[in-house]
Amino acid sequence: MVMDFSFSHFPFDLVLFGLVAAFLALRLRSILGTRVGVEPAPPPSAVPRPGPVIEGRAEPPATLTDYDVPAPETRVGQVLAAIAQQERDFVPAQFLKGVEAAFRQIVLAFAAGDVAMLRERLTANAFSAFEAAIRSREQSGEIQKAEVRAIASLAIVDAAIEERDGATHARIDVRIVSDQISLTSDKDGHPVAGTDAVTEFSDLWTFERPLGVAISGAAWRLAASRSA
What pLDDT is recorded for position 112? Predict the structure, then answer.
């Protein structure tokens, strides 16, 4: 079987962030010009900053993305093996391939204001925050430009199996290093956030899904992200 990254249905048991939508919208608007995700209320000093600007790189590098999977004997490797025991089609490298595609889709969907696509790729709480930030941006007349020029590496850095609301859920944290152009301009075309130069970003995205063959349409969805 091929691992499901189609995102065709919402999982019913979702991670709770404990934040009101208005705060999330304000927080996202302040950072999503340069970084996409739902950040669980860090202090002001922890606001993510973009990495170094990469001068002179006009085209994506002709290199393959590096997939880093923990060794089987490690704690995280053992959790991944436990996930595979419950989901026979789960293969860590294939999971990362799906994450790579989802990362590009989510970044571009947020910039384009494509709430329909985001709704199918995010958990309900994450989607609410993204949608609020998009509506706020539209009301201000701001325009987001985003290009994912390259994804240098994806690494599984943590994983867990959790019992919530009578169901079993898997959670996997992935560190994503990418080269992006991310620029937000006001209604007059003046830059208000980000840059039109290629910049390196390092993010930690958390994906979740319910486990069990009896759950129809279960799929991995973005639940949270922060600067890595």
Answer: 96
Predicted pLDDT at 165: 80
- Give me the residues paired with residue 180 across strands: 148, 199
Residue 181 lies in a domain: yes
Number of domains composing the chain: 1
Radius of gyration of the chain (CA): 18
Domain that holds residue 169: 21-41+49-227
DSSP class of 64: P
pLDDT band at 212 (very low <50, low <70, confident <90, very high): confident
N residues, the chain: 228
Identify whether 71 is part of a domain.
Answer: yes
For the segment 198-217, the average pLDDT, to the nearest whole number, is 85
Residues paired with 210 in a beta bridge: 169
**pTM of the predicted protein model:** 0.73
Q: Which two tokens stand for residue 169?
A: 């859920």
For residue 17, how far is the Cα from the chain centroid? 15
Q: Residue 149 — φ and ψ, nearest 5°? A: -75, -35
Closest CA to 158 of 224, 102, 107, 98: 224
Give pLDDT tens digits for 143-161.
Answer: 999 999 999 999 999 999 9
Residue 36 amino acid letter: V
Name the residue among 102, 46, 76 with its Cα closest to residue 227: 46
Domain of 102, CATH number, reads 3.10.450.240
What's the start-to-end Cα distance of the chain, in Å? 32
Residue 29 in any domain: the answer is yes
